[in-house]
Write a structure and sequence with these properties.
Blueprint lengths: L8 H44 L1 H10 L3 H34 L11 H27 L3 H6 L2
Helix pairs in contact: 1-4, 2-4, 3-4
């Protein structure tokens, strides 16, 4: 054994894992960026969707609908869209996460410590994306909304 290559077993294992560790860190960074981009896209789409309905919301208020009824109506549509999107996303993510699992790196195919925070971030962004424009739409004077039709 050449003396210049002497190392302990722990050091040899650590050096053998260094590529996998770097790849894991790169995938984590890319995943975080993808989550931020998805959140920004989700916010944009939902905010635009609610902003497009400003006139409808004004007309509903002019007819006599309460703010709570309008929030419930928009909220049910949001929950439906969110449920469909999350179901498709989780259905696609689970098989791919199993392919990325590595017992040597102590990673599971479906780690609740990863999936649950991501789902929570998406749900919070969806709620904020719809509530902020909805508050603005609820402030529109119903008479102005009726004049535009």
């Amino acid at each position: 054994i050449p003396l210049y290559a002497l190392r302990s077993q722990a050091q040899a294992i650590s050096m053998g894992r260094s590529t996998a560790v770097v790849l894991t860190q790169v995938f984590s960074a890319i995943g975080s960026i993808a989550l931020l981009l998805a959140a920004a896209g989700l916010y944009g789409v939902l905010a635009f969707s609610v902003a497009q309905r400003t006139r409808e919301i004004g007309i509903r208020r002019a007819i006599g609908a309460s703010s709570g009824a309008i929030i419930n109506h928009v909220g049910m549509q949001l929950l439906l869209q969110l449920a469909i999107g999350l179901a498709i996303g989780v259905a696609l993510a689970l098989p791919w996460s199993r392919k990325l699992a590595n017992p040597l790196m102590h990673t599971k195919g479906y780690d609740p410590g990863v999936f649950l925070p991501v789902l929570a971030v998406i749900v919070v962004i969806a709620l904020l994306a719809s509530l902020l424009p909805l508050q603005k739409a609820l402030r529109v004077d119903p008479v102005i909304a009726l004049r535009h039709d």
